Amino acid sequence: LAKTTQPISMDSYEGQEVNITCSHNNIATNDYITWYQQFPSQGPRFIIQGYKTKVTNEVASLFIPADRKSSTLSLPRVSLSDTAVYYCLVGDRGDDKIIFGKGTRLHILP
Amino acid sequence: EAGVAQSPRYKIIEKRQSVAFWCNPISGHATLYWYQQILGQGPKLLIQFQNNGVVDDSQLPKDRFSAERLKGVDSTLKIQPAKLEDSAVYLCASNTGTQEYQETQYFGPGTRLLVL
To answer: Residues 30..59 of B with a Cβ closer than 8 Å to A: which?
Structure first.
């Protein structure tokens, strides 16, 4: 399983767009990139998953460059309720095992 | 659709005592996971079940931790005897286990254990 590196913490303000970048230099051909969100006192929750280029859903966008050695989670117009820990995970297609790092603690300020 | 249920939500015990956690996955989900999350860290997989069989328990401290999923539905995780370093949140997750790509895991709220 490829190792991921992401910032330990980030601060932003309400209404701003937040971009969290994750590095995964050793990503393999069959690996997918997945992001989870975890609020205090709750279990992680799936946000978005992608393989290449751009993926968008109602919550976030995921940008993956051609070399796939990094990815960027983009949260549009954040609110206080987006304060959480965000985990970037890389896993093999067909392998449902995931390994969590320490994640990025995002703190949204009013 | 009901989510993953876990109980109890909180537990305080003294070291060397035993404790058990219960998880009921989403209906129809064949794969069930138990994770340990120590404060400030990401969840660490302890054990993975596919139906009632163990797929991976490589990170389960088997001298004190045990888990079962006898009928392939709900599961229990037991610690006996507990140590101070077992203080953590124990998370249960599940998915169908049938998709060919990395499938979303659905997590329960967790059980927060404090060992004194």
So the answer is: 31, 35, 40-45, 48, 56
- CA B6 – CA A36 distance, rounded (Å): 20
pLDDT digit string, tens, across residues B11-65: 999 999 999 999 999 999 999 999 999 999 999 999 999 998 999 999 999 999 9
| A44–B100 CB contact, under 8 Å | no
Tell if the CB–CB gap between B91 and A92 is shorter than 8 Å.
no
- Judge whether B8 and B113 are in contact, CB under 8 Å: no
Q: One-letter amino acid identity for A85?
A: V
The per-residue DSSP string of A2-49 comes to ---B--SEEEEETT--EEEEEE-TT--TTEEEEEEEE-TTS--EEEEE
pLDDT for the residue numbered A102:
86
Structure tokens at B72: 């392939």
Question: Which residue type does A27 have?
Answer: I
Cβ atoms B65, B79 nearer than 8 A: yes
Q: Which residues of B touch A32 (CB under 8 A)?
A: 101-102
Calpha distance A80→B65 (Å, rounded): 38
Q: Residue B34: its pLDDT value, please?
A: 97
| Contact between B42 and A100 using a beta-carbon 8 Å cutoff | yes
